[in-house]
Every structure is written in C-alpha cells, then in structure tokens.
Amino acid sequence: MITFAKKFRTRAATHFPDGLEENLEDASPDLSSVKPLPPGNPPGSVEFNGARREARAYLESHNWVSAIKGEYLGYRIDGVIYVFLFEFVPAKPDVPSWTWVIVGDIPSAYISCHYAKTPYVALEGYIGAMEEWVEAAREGKSVADIIPVNVPATPAYAEMLGSRLKFLDENVLPLLPK
C-alpha cells in the first residue's frame, strides 16, 4: 500500500485527536457508518452496478489483495461518486484487511482504514491527497510520491481534476455525516 500524501494527513489528522500515528494499530472501520451490500450483482441502477464492478476490479488489481470477503456502501451520488468499503484477505503480511475504494467521475483510489474510519474521513482524505497531485501537476513537479492518478500530470488535467475536487469539497462532503 502507498504512503499517503501530506494533505491527506493534514485533513485526516483533525479526526484523530490523539495523533495519526497512534491510531495506526487499529485499521477497523466504523461499520455503523456503512450499509452492507449483498454478494453478487443484486438489482440496482446501471450506474451503481457499474461503479461497484469498477471498485472491485480496482481493488483486485493490487497485488496485496488475495480475495474480497465483504462489501459495503459508504456513500453514493450516481454518476458522480461512490465510496465503497471492502474487507479482503491480504496477500501480503502487514496489510490491513479493510480499505475504502472511491470511484466515479474522478480518478479511482483506495484509502486505508488506518487513516479513515468513516466515509466522511475517507472522502476528505481522498480530496486532500488529490489536491496535492493537482498542485504538483499545475507546477510541473514530480507526482511520483503522490497518490497515483491514471492520467498524465499536466496543467490541463490538473484543472479538470481540481474543479471536480472543489465540487466534492463544497457540495458533497458536507452531505456526509462526520
């Protein structure tokens, strides 16, 4: 799993009053903040089912995932953003068995439950980590040690992602319970 960006840590730290590092021992999410999803492909909107498949495929593309054990929905706005929580069997030692996967009209990413216990904190951390990528791409700096984004780090892509992040920060994040 990757090390999280500086802005992620800054935003997430507000939710860890005892300090972020002290909370790394507990990688369990707050299950009261999510809705369990039934296995398979139950009836749902075309957008939701597609996003669920995309999130599963994204998670399974990582070599530290052996098998998915459980799926939960943290938040969704069809066609815009989906925040899923997955429990999985780690394929490597020292990998926590829970992670958030965020997909939609934005770059897909995972956020470890070490850093985010709820959908709100996961989305807030996602926005912060992606904002760091946007700043680096705008300035022509390296994005090698920043959250991965599946497009070239150019000012044009930075502007597109930046406007989506601003929308999420101002219009979607306030809708999630803290």
Please provide a written account of the structure.
The chain is of the alpha+beta class. The chain is built from four helices and five strands. A five-stranded antiparallel beta sheet has the order 1-2-3-4-5. Strand 3 (81-90) and strand 4 (98-104) form a beta hairpin. Helix 1 (6-13) packs antiparallel against helix 3 and helix 3 (119-139) runs antiparallel to helix 4 (155-172). The chain is globular, with a radius of gyration of 16 Å.
Class by helix and strand content? Answer: alpha+beta
Biggest β-sheet strands, sense, barrel: 5 strands, antiparallel
Total beta strands:
5
Indicate the mean pLDDT: 87
Q: What strand line-up does the widest sheet have?
A: 1-2-3-4-5
The number of helical runs is 4
Low-confidence stretches: 1-5, 12-24
Helix content: 25-40%
Percent of sequence in beta strands? 15-25%
Shape: globular
SSE order? HEHEEEEHH
Please report the distance between the alpha carbons of the first and last residues: 25 Å
Query: What is the CA-atom radius of gyration, in angstroms?
Result: 16 Å
How does the SSE layout of this entry go?
Layout: H1 6-13, E1 35-36, H2 46-60, E2 65-77, E3 81-90, E4 98-104, E5 109-112, H3 119-139, H4 155-172
Provide a compact summary of the structure.
By secondary structure, the chain is of the alpha+beta class. 35% of the residues lie in helices and 20% in strands. A five-stranded antiparallel beta sheet has the order 1-2-3-4-5.
